[in-house]
């Protein structure tokens, strides 16, 4: 018997879509019905290539908060990305994978003092702030930090808005730069965030112009303003490619106008959902159903209960304002539709994924898959009621795998892990497959990563 476990990387001899991969997994493992993510690592690579070609002057620093999956971090680190970390835990996770401190920006404007101290201990110098109290706190804890002043933006067209919580207006920002000069703190640049899932380019253009104004003022005061952080908010769902292209074109034009490429400025961004949203497809199983008859019309309405919900992978419904769309396999996708609601498996009435949607009639045991489930899903999931949420199974074609497999080989740990962890060894498994179905690729990979291949 050969083993597939959660965290497996499956190498396919030909290119698979997420739907094809899910179908293959279901066919091979008929008795395994727990929810799982099909994670297309090739999609992440393609997103990185597109970023570099679309905005060549902007170095991406992946927003770990969006999806802190270790294999995503490993892959992006190998591809050359930096990282936006918002806490001690995120900094530690990234650095434990061998990422150097100079590739990290501590991009949380309001930080716990002990976390600032930790950043100092591990050498993370660059961090954001947006108010005088934070400036004075950093002065006391980490006087040699390199500061980036975050300004407010117009994020009214974003999925998730941040300017109500973070960012200084320009008038306040000028005063903060003056205060930093007064207390001898080093301000090296300006940052902004146009909101998560931003769908217009104007917010970026206006913010870049405001950043130029503030950085010019900082230079007059004697600061070496050499860093511009244009934040996150870049769309990453399937079907948003044109929006991203529009934003990239507008950003490039604004940068050329306000920050000519003279070698004196480093430009970074903090994309999160851009990289991972479309690469994760969630597969769920119908575990129960209920038929309801409308008293007025006599028509049947159906309630389906699946094995993942808003406390698990679908927490994006509550926290990210996401409206997930179910997809069915061909055998289930008939022309006859019924009014349907889809519910998670917990005992909470809040655990509703779709309140009303038109779907064909389904049976217990049928599979439903959900696209664009990589952003703000597993990073905030919990096992409420003791119920599991989707675990990732990664896949990539052999052609791509040969170019990036070194990313997943064991790397030396530079920092001691303080908390104990249970290590999954080769005898632990979630799935079993006969030898002739799924032969191993013998490679020297990290203890928690299994690599297999399928036809």
From TrEMBL:
Belongs to the Orn/Lys/Arg decarboxylase class-II family. Its cofactor is pyridoxal 5'-phosphate. This is ornithine decarboxylase. InterPro entries: Ala_racemase/Decarboxylase_C, De-COase2_N, De-COase2_pyr-phos_BS, Orn/DAP/Arg_de-COase, Orn_de-COase, PLP-binding_barrel. Keywords: Lyase, Polyamine biosynthesis, Pyridoxal phosphate. It holds the Pfam family Orn_Arg_deC_N. GO terms for biological process: putrescine biosynthetic process from arginine, via ornithine. GO terms for cellular component: cytoplasm. GO terms for molecular function: ornithine decarboxylase activity. Its EC number is 4.1.1.17.
